[in-house]
Write a structure and sequence with these properties.
By secondary structure, the protein is an alpha+beta fold. Helix content is 33%, strand content 36%.
Length: 156
Amino acid sequence: MEKKAEPIKVIATNRKATHDFTIHERIEAGLQLVGSEVKSLRDARVVISDGFVEFRKGQAYLHKVQINEYAQANRWGHDMERVRKLLLHKHEIAKLTTKVTQKGFTLIPLSLYFKGHRVKAELALVTHKKVHDKRASKKEADDKREMDRAKKAHSR
């Protein structure tokens, strides 16, 4: 029996991440949320640009991700900047913990999305870019854009 491909709907992306960090590895993780957070995510009311992952007692937690309050949730709403647990396998947590503690990597969220009815986070194992690296990557992007424009003009 063949599984259907679950539809993916992107909620939010961290566009600042590719500018500030060098991405080494990408990981998909589930999020432990409350009902009003899911409703707010359906309205795409979230900020993930400052987010990071911390490991405590064999668990992974997502910090500094702001999911805005859901207006119809009345007094049983959620705290906007609460720490949310990430759902990962033990072997994934162990591997990521060693990389983050020993090698100076950081784990940040790149995007949040719905995969079917579940909310998933795309995490990235990153290192900070130096100022000259940022300049070099911007120059590469500008050069690529110029080459694409020249090819397009030449093909006419």
